[in-house]
Amino acid sequence: MNPISAIIVLYNPNSTIINNIQSYINNVSKLYVVDNSDVINRQFVDSLAQFKNLIYINNSGNQGIAHALNVGAKLAIKDGASWLLTMDQDSRFEGNNLENLIQCALHCDITSIGIMSPVHVLEHSINKPVQIQKVSETFDVMTSGNLLNLHIYQKIGEFINELFIDAVDQEYCLRLRHNRYKILLCEFALLEHCLGDLREVKLGFKSIRYSNHSPIRRYYITRNRLYLFQKYFWEFPLFGFKIIKWIIFEWIKIIVLEKDKIAKNKATLEGIRDFFRGKYGKYCSK
Question: What region holds the Glycosyltransferase 2-like domain (predicted)?
Answer without folding.
Answer: 5-103
